[in-house]
Each structure stands twice: as C-alpha cells, then as structure tokens.
Amino acid sequence: MIRKYTFGTPFSTDAVILSLPAESGEFPFFKLTRENDRVILTRKLQPEDCLFGLGESVRGINKRGHRYRSWNSDVFNHTESTESLYGSHNLLCFFGPECCFGIYLDDPGLITWDLGYTRSDTVVITSENGQLDLYILEEDSLTELARTFRRLTGRSYLPPRWAFGYIQSRWGYASEEEVRTVAEEHRRRRIPLDGICLDIDYMEEFKNFTWRKDAFPDLPRFTADMKADHLRLIPIIDAGIRQENGYAPYDSGEAGGYFCRKADGSDFAAAVWPGICCFPDFLREDTRRWFGSLYRPLLEAGLEGFWNDMNEPALFFTEERVESAFRRAEEVHRNPRDYEAMWRLGDSFSSLANSLEDYRSFFHESDGRQVRHDRVHNLYGAFMTRSAAEAFRRFDPGKRFLLFSRSSFIGAHRNGGIWQGDNFSWWSHLKMALQMLPGLNLCGFLYSGCDLGGFGCNVTEDLLLRFLQLGVFTPLMRNHSALHTREQEVYRFSTWEWMRDVIRVRYALLPFLYSEFMKAALTGGMYFRPLAFDYPKDPRAIHTEDQILLGEGCMIAPVLEQNAEGRYVYLPEDMLMIRFRSPEDYDLVPMNKGDHRISMSLREFPLFVKKNHPVLLCPGGERTELLDDRTFTAVCRADGKVSYDLYRDDGADPDPVLADHLTTVVIPASALSGSPVPGVAISSLVL
Ligand code: MIG
C-alpha cells in the first residue's frame, strides 16, 4: 500500500512514475513538526528495529546509529564518519517486531537523517526545503516493500549483456597504444576482458566530446578494431563544459542559453578539470536534448558505453570564492598577531571546493520559474544521466547502452547504473562496498559495483584478490584506480594467475548471474538483499552485516580482512557451499544451518546456495559474446528433481518480456544418485 502526502509545492523530480492523489488524513508512523520552512519527522525506535535503505551511504546494511545527509558530494576522502556520498536515495525502511514500512522523501534538497545519532532510540528526518511529496509504503514483508517501491519508481536500468564482463579502467591511460597494450596483456595471459574505460586523459585538455588527435588519431577505427575483438571502449564524460569561444559544445550551449545562470543573468562558471566551465541546466528538457545530442558523434564512432563523472556537480572553485579567500588572506597579513585568524587561513583555501555558497549562487529554470540550485541540488547528476539515456534511445531505440554515473538520485535507476565512487585500497572499503550493495538494490540501482582494488592509494595483491572475489558477483565488475597510485591491472602482480581464475569464475557464472539479474530487474526484485529479507524471523540473520543474499537462492560472504585465510559464516538454513579456486576447481560442501568457520586461502572464495536452487556454470571464455550459454554444469544440493528458469536473451533488447526468454532447465533426480558428493546433484546440460 502506498500513501502520498504533499507539503507545499514540491519540485517535480521525475523520481516517481505513479501519479497518486495526496492523502489528507493524519500523517502515520511519525510525529510531524514544522519549523520555519522545514518539515521534521520524528519516530521512536524499539530496541529490535532495523533500518534499511538510503542507497549509496557509508557504514552498515542496517543504517541505524549514524547521521546521514542527502547532499550529493564529491568525497574522494570518504570514511565511516562521512555523512554524504555522491548520490541521494531517500528511501528508509523500518523493520521490527511491530513494524514493516518505508518512507520515501521525493525531495531534491538537503535532508538530514538522524538515525539514532542524537538519541539512540529516536529517528529524526528533516527536510530543509519543506516542500515535498512524502510516500509511506506499507507491506507485510520487506520483499514486498521493495517491490512496491519499484512499482512507485519504475523498472531498473538494463545494461547490455557485455557490460557483465570484466572491465579494466585507470585514470591515466593516455594513448591508443597504451590502451591496446592493456588489451594485449590481458589477451596474452587469457585473462577475460570485455571493456576498457577511457578516463579524462583521452580528451583534449579534458574537454567533453573531444579526443586528443595526437594520442587517439582515429577513434572510430580504434573503436572498430577493439569491437572486432569483442572489446568495448567506454569513455568518460564530465558535467562541466569549458567556457571557451570556438569550442563547439560551449558555443552551441551558449547560443541556446542552456547553462545555469547567476542572479544577474550571467552564466555561472566554476573550475573543474577542463578549467573554467559552465554547467548545463539539465533540469530543462531542451538542455537535455542539446547535451544528449553532443554524444552523437561518439555514438556514430561506434561507442556503446559511457560513464558520467563530476556530476554532483563537483566544483573545484569559483572566482568569487577565490577572491574572498584572498581578501581574508590579506586581512590576516595585515594583522599577523591574530593567531586564530592565521590558523584558520588554511581553511579559506581548503574549503574552496563544493562550497554551499556557490551552490546557492546559481539557478535552474523550470516551467519559466527560477529555482536556486541548492533547492534541487541532488537532481543534477540524475538529470545528466537522463539526458544521455534519452539521447541513446533516440539514436538507437533498439539497443541497450552501457551507462553508469557517479552522482544519482532515485529515478536515475531507470536510466543507468552507478559506481560507488572514489574508494580507497583499504580493507574497510571492501567491507563498505559489500554493505552498500543491498541498500542500492532496494533503491533500484541494480547495476552497480565499486572500484575493484580501490581507487585511491596503493593496493596490495591480497586486497586486489579479495576485491575481485567480491566483484565476481557485482553486476558492474570494474578494476579502477587513480592516477599516481600503484598500477592495478591484474597482470602486474605475481599472483595474476589466481586473479585470472577469479575472473574466469565470473565468466563461467555469467549466464547464471545475468539470468538472476534480469529476473530481478524485470520483476521489480532485488539482485542483492540483506538476509533479513528472506529470514525475517531469524534474529541472527537480521543482524548479519557481512553477508548478503544474491538472486533467488544464493548468498555471498567474502573474506574482508587481511591475512584472515577464512572467516566465520552464518548459514540461516542448510546450504551448499561452492568454494571456488577456478571454474574447473571447486569444492562442493553441504553445510547445515548455523555457524561455521570456513577456511579460504587467498585464491579461494565461496558461494552459498539454498537447497533445490541450482547454480549453472558454463564452460567460460574470454569475452561475454563468445560464451557458450547452452552448455552447463549444474550443481545443486537437492531433495530430488529440481528445475531452474534460465533467462537468456540477445543482451541488447531494451524492452524484453520476461516470459519470452525463460528456458526451464531440469536436473533429474538421477543426477543425485551418481554424484560423488552425497545429496548434491551434478549434472551436465545442453540446451
Ligand atoms: O577529480 O576522471 O570518481 O573515477 O578516475 C577526479 C578522473 C575526477 C573522479 C572519478 C574517478 C576518475 C577521476 N574523477
């Protein structure tokens, strides 16, 4: 059941696809107060209550015990105390012995979520805008709650099937030759690969929609060569457009009046990678059309995938802010004995980036109205994604394109995926990546993943291995690292063969994982979920923070600590453990409900599977397009005959009908009797 409540005149965010009448009765579940413009919602928590949701955010699967802020931010240095990341996903589900409901704030401005921070038994949610649509969702189970929310907000984005392959990326690949070498080094070692990301270094002076003619002399030919080898190039596009006469995207943007403006009507300008930039007003339909059309030459050059960055939007500085920092510096210079001012001087410069004052200084246009940016801040990245997705649809309506963004808002889950932003090569960030996945799925972002290996600082071999072992299961499986950090391609490491085997397991599982993903996406389900969703009566499962469910019948529990050589795993029911070393080399171990200490050497990682849920392994291959998805080994802890509905399609149809693509695979009871592992059916299938 969904109930809608409207406060003031909300900005239309496009997040919701159902149009519902607003209720007029008493507001349920919360005490509602208004303070100046704000709307404040307060609710007492019972000791057992859990909170799920908030999509991209730090800390646990259960969000209880921290204060979060919906305010899209470029936070290269995020840690567990960070309150805002790159996206704002304003859904929070309350789950306890006496409650199962969700609250969704369709509000693109600043929201504070005090989730047992000020008082451990109280939730306080504050909307600064105070003008919003508020939805209360009520169902008997978390699983139904998630479905209802998807009904409200629409179907998740479907990436092309090749986007489930392994993708190599690094900030710093600066020429065609370098990129070809990366491809070649993978090929020589038979490391599977489907795509290589081009970061800002491919552009001329970091200017969107250009490419460096010296380093990438013929991008269409390069793209075609790679494609002939079933590899895709995936260029980055940033939000800002350099303010420079003679640069076509700037000239056409200026001519169309498509940029965000200051109060005096002049274009708002701020420095980002290309220098001083203007910012497309993506909230306007005509701007989205214009910006989307700029992708066209790249699409015509054969490119089929993009990642959109810096779209919070990230601002390095504005001239106004630099001026005022210098003014402060001069004042301090004149009063050298004002030690405190001297000490604070550093802050004036270090706080130049992403300043609230700048976000308050420019405007969007909506239905002829001027809307100050900070009121709608969290929409910016989502509408950039929308601009690109709409352009791709116009260009080729019969095809899926890969698109993933850094910044997002609910609604953007219909148009693209997201990556989890600038993590570090830290063990704690491996855990954070795992814990973020269920929340993202709840909010509709099924196609996602973190920078495997970690983006910032230097990775170690063991950490990269463990990251890849998580990445085997994330829809976006991308190794990405920052300029000047240790080179992170798997072939750089002495244990590259183990890493290759991990990636090979991904390819062997790919048709199965793709099937699980598509079934979740097409039925409004979740690909990853907290254990609480399937075991709502099991307190151990409800509070499990380092294992998550995958698809219909699987659970993952990666090793998250250095030198651990294994870990404890809680099985909420009897399961089969598949402990992989490679697609050909794995242990099948039936295990009973309860706690287990499981040894996992560096090259080993487990997949747990419920009884009577088969897992399918294909013979593997080095490219998604070359996989044989008709020949499988099925493994299953079974009580008798079992079947599985395998989803298979062309991987490109943007609007597939689930029922048209299901093949029922049957594993006969006889597969049990001949099996070397008692109770586990192992069966070869040819479709
Ligand atoms: O200010 O394009 O999150 O993935 O490599 C950094 C360079 C800009 C941030 C992205 C990261 C990307 C980097 N970008």
Question: Could you please describe the fold and organization of this structure?
Answer:
The strands form ten sheets. Strands 25-24-22-19-14-13-12-27-26 form a nine-stranded parallel β-sheet. The longest helix is centred in the C-terminal third of the chain and has 27 residues, at 496-522. The radius of gyration is 25 Å and the shape is globular. The two termini are 41 Å apart. With 687 residues, it is of the alpha+beta class. Residues 171, 199-200, 236, 309-310, 406, 421-422, 455, 480 line the site of ligand MIG. The site of ligand MIG has 11 residues, from loops.
Summary keywords:
687 residues; alpha+beta; nine-stranded parallel β-sheet; 40 strands; binds ligand MIG
Q: Which helices and strands, and how do they pair?
A:
Blueprint: E1 2-7, E2 31-35, E3 38-44, E4 50-53, E5 66-70, E6 87-88, E7 91-96, E8 99-106, E9 111-115, E10 122-127, E11 132-138, H1 142-153, E12 166-168, H2 176-188, E13 195-198, H3 219-228, E14 232-238, E15 241-242, H4 248-256, E16 261-262, E17 269-272, E18 275-278, H5 285-293, H6 296-300, E19 305-309, H7 319-334, H8 339-350, H9 356-359, E20 362-366, E21 369-372, H10 373-376, H11 380-395, E22 402-405, E23 408-409, E24 417-419, H12 427-442, E25 448-449, E26 451-452, H13 461-471, E27 477-479, H14 496-522, E28 528-529, H15 539-542, E29 548-550, E30 554-556, E31 566-571, E32 575-580, E33 586-591, E34 594-599, E35 605-610, E36 615-617, E37 631-637, E38 642-647, E39 662-667, H16 670-673, E40 680-686
Parallel strand pairs: 6-23, 12-13, 12-27, 13-14, 14-19, 19-22, 22-24, 24-25, 26-27
Antiparallel strand pairs: 1-11, 2-3, 3-10, 4-7, 5-9, 7-8, 8-11, 9-10, 15-18, 16-20, 17-18, 20-21, 28-29, 29-30, 30-35, 31-34, 32-33, 32-35, 36-37, 37-40, 38-39
Helix pairs in contact: 5-11, 7-8, 13-14
The protein binds ligand MIG.
The site of ligand MIG has 11 residues, from loops.
